[in-house]
Design a protein that fits this description.
10-stranded antiparallel β-sheet, 742 residues, single chain, alpha+beta
Length: 742
């Protein structure tokens, strides 16, 4: 057999594995899908499983199709044939679209029938094929408000003899064979090495999706996941060598990972088309009002400083987009900047190589991903805080003006959030300590202060001009509501807006301290039975198991800090954390308030793993790092899905339809006032008319000559005109509706 130190054995194993996979694809296979049974891996957009109604004279279970129903078929081979057994409540036309291409169009009646078809395309699909079920939908019986299409009982999928494999599956088989060869080169004898690298990809494909097992749950992406796992194991094993011999490899991989992370967020943000409520985005309405003109931007606000409204106003002026579009694309853009700043800070704190783990912990944080998509000032503030930390720790000793830039970043954080003053206080205390150690000059401190004032002066001037108070905010009133009002917003008016924090404290010092300490325990967890204070918010900053490592790191740092061995960089982050939590606890702490501390949690997790990494054998090291990598990736995708699912379903559906079919149309809305469609959505800048009164004034609506009319049945019955599209309570009409009225 050829020497495994050359490329020849790898080429042989890859080609042999692909050949065996091709032979397997030539052998016929069949999947019987019992719709209404174990079918979750095969269906999408169907309603829940149910017994077949007695009206259809057949026993068993089935599913009704919805507006966007589809059957998911693994890439078994080219060609793939299918047969769908279904019935309709009323005669209608059924169109089956294979990978968005019309293939079968047939009438379907109230009698059970079988519709067959053949799939010959899908070469560009990475894993599965989609057969979309397109038909008219309507409630099928009185009392059932579901908009249903056809009732599907079963689907059969099979391939004939000598079917060809799909190109993507050939690629995954070959890649997995190559990666397995690299990973097991030093682990297996030559004979077992050849058997493993040739047979494993074929067996994984056969067991996980090509053969239908007794429990039918195919995993067409199994080869891709296996490639990712093996590639990760290879990188983990050789990471130290890579970072020492070829440092640019480490930087290239981290940069590529950040680019991929950001690219996935950009793709996901395209489906963020309206406000996700309940949540932080309900506050966006106030930002829209404050950013509609420069005069509104330059106003003192007790809750939000002028920085974020100014950003929204500037983007709207430069691009001509709506406030919603400006907010959603700024959120995902600044998230990329925040992760890059985290990488810079990680390089300073833990050095090359380990910075990748710290960045991974931040990128996989569900909280961080969530606020990379949601609209608000949270991610902007987080970026500026992280950037300030990176600048102050990286600051060259001889570059005096670097400190002015650092002050500009800290001042910008204050311009975005009132709590930016805590960041400035942290930097001041840390710099005074460094001044005592003779590592910092008064000139550098003065330049930092000058930079901070340059950016903060607009907010300070607005505060004094409008209210007479330099640091105008309602923090004291928030504190009163938390201490004495039990966070009942109905009691907000019980005390004047001008109440001072001193009054809140002196009114009942014991109750104030109790409330403050309960907020602290809400961050760290107390083990008490009262669920109100058992949130342990610190563990929500990172995903499992990185959050466990972060807690272990905090505990392990205690004796190190006591012995003054942590170093000035780590001390700055701990000082920032302590001050931020202690001051925020004066009122109340929400999870998103702690978003700037995600980088601190990632640092403590990386620090403890780095410190005790060599105490474990190589196998345990690989297991620990692999577990962290796997859960971070899983948390990333889960956070995207759950965040975007908070959008109202009907509003999201109609907006996605309009974006896809009428991306530049002039829109008229006849919708309730509480609906976000016309004002807080991805198409609000294309609105030419919006009416919210129950009796729609059609002449006024049509006066603006819209291309499309969006109608809500909550106002009144829709006009008698052909409906272009409908979902839930929203109906889309062509603009010709107005011509019919005239």
């Amino acid at each position: 057999m050829p020497n495994r130190n050359t490329l020849i054995p790898y080429i042989i194993t890859v080609m042999a594995s692909i050949f065996l996979f091709g032979v397997m694809c030539m052998i016929p296979t069949r999947h019987h899908i019992d719709i209404g049974g174990y079918d979750s891996a095969y269906v999408q957009g169907f309603f829940d499983q149910q017994r077949i109604p007695t009206e259809f004279a057949q026993a068993g279970t089935a599913r009704w199709s919805g507006n966007e129903a589809a059957i998911i078929i693994p890439q078994l081979g080219i060609p793939t044939q299918f047969a769908i057994t279904a019935v309709a409540s009323t005669p209608k036309q059924l169109t089956l679209r294979i990978n968005d291409n019309a293939a079968v169009s047939t009438p379907i009646t109230t009698q059970w029938q079988t519709i067959t078809g053949t799939i010959r395309d899908g070469y560009r699909k990475p894993f599965s094929l989609f057969v979309s079920v397109a038909t008219t939908t309507a409630p099928w019986q009185k009392g059932d408000l579901r908009e249903v299409g056809i009732l599907v009982d079963s689907v059969d999928v099979w391939t004939p003899w000598f079917a060809l494999p799909y190109p993507s599956q050939i690629l995954w088989v070959g890649l997995l064979s190559l990666l397995l060869g690299i990973w097991t080169k030093s682990l297996l004898p030559r004979t077992y090495w050849y058997l493993t690298t040739i047979l494993s990809p074929v067996l994984i494909a056969a067991i996980t999706w090509r053969w239908q097992l007794p429990y039918p749950y195919p995993l067409p992406s199994s080869l891709a996941y296996a490639c990712g796992i093996v590639a990760g194991l290879i990188i983990i094993r050789h990471w130290a060598t890579l970072t020492q011999r070829w440092p640019w490899w480490s930087d290239a991989l981290v940069a590529l990972g950040i680019a991929g992370w950001w690219g996935m967020l950009v793709l996901a943000q395209q489906t963020h088309v309206t406000l996700a409520v309940p949540g932080v985005e309900k506050d966006f309405r106030s930002f829209v009002t404050r950013s509609d003109s420069l005069a509104h931007v330059w106003q003192a606000d007790p809750f939000y400083n002028l920085g974020y409204p100014f950003i929204l106003w500037g983007i709207q002026q430069l691009t001509g987009t709506s406030a919603f579009d400006a907010g959603r694309w700024w959120a995902v853009s600044v998230a990329g900047l925040a992760l890059l700043s985290s990488w810079w800070l990680a390089r300073t704190l833990v050095g090359r190589g380990w910075d990748a783990l710290m960045v991974l912990c931040v990128a996989g944080s569900g909280l961080f991903v969530q606020y990379s998509l949601l609209i608000g000032s949270d991610m902007t503030f987080t970026w500026l805080c992280t950037l300030t930390m990176a600048l102050i720790l990286y600051a060259p000793q001889r570059n005096q003006w670097w400190w002015c830039v650092t002050g500009l970043a800290a001042g910008a954080a204050f311009l975005v959030r009132h709590t930016g003053i805590v960041l400035a206080l942290t930097c001041l205390i840390w710099m005074l300590y460094q001044r005592r150690q003779h590592t910092l000059t008064w000139r550098q401190m003065g330049l930092f202060g000058a930079g901070w004032l340059i950016v903060a002066i607009p907010q300070l001037w607005v505060n004094v001009h409008d209210t007479g108070a330099l640091l105008f905010n309602y923090q004291a009133k928030n504190s009163w509501l938390a201490v004495y009002g039990n966070l009942d917003w109905g009691r907000w008016g019980d005390v004047p807006d001008s109440i001072s924090l001193t009054t809140v404290i002196l009114n009942n010092p014991s109750q104030f301290i109790t409330s403050w300490w309960q907020n602290i325990t809400q961050v760290i967890g107390s083990g008490a039975n009262n669920a109100e204070y058992e949130r342990a918010l610190w563990q929500r900053l990172l995903s499992v198991p990185a959050n466990w490592a972060s807690i272990a790191g905090i505990v392990a740092m205690i004796p190190v800090v006591w012995q003054r061995q942590l170093g000035r960089n780590g001390m700055l982050l701990l000082l920032w954390t302590g001050l931020f939590v202690a001051i925020s606890a004066i009122a109340f702490i929400l999870p998103r308030f702690l978003l700037p501390l995600v980088i601190v949690a990632a640092y403590s997790a990386t620090w403890v793993i780095h410190r005790y990494y060599t105490a474990f054998r190589i196998g345990w090291r690989a297991l620990i790092i692999t577990a962290i990598c796997f859960w971070q990736l899983s948390s990333f995708t889960t956070a995207i899905r759950t965040t975007l699912s908070q959008q109202p379903a009907d509003e999201q559906a109609v907006l996605q339809y309009l974006v896809a079919v009428h991306p530049t149309a002039r829109l008229a809305f006849a919708i309730p006032s509480e609906s976000p469609l016309g004002k807080y959505s991805a198409l609000s800048q294309q609105r030419v008319h919006r009416t919210t009164i129950a009796l729609v004034d059609m002449p006024a609506l049509c006066q603006s000559t819209p291309d499309v009319v969006v109608w809500s049945t909550e106002l009144q019955d829709p006009p008698r005109y052909p409906i272009e599209w409908q979902r839930g309570r929203y109906i889309v009409f062509d603009g010709a509706l107005c011509d019919s009225i005239h």
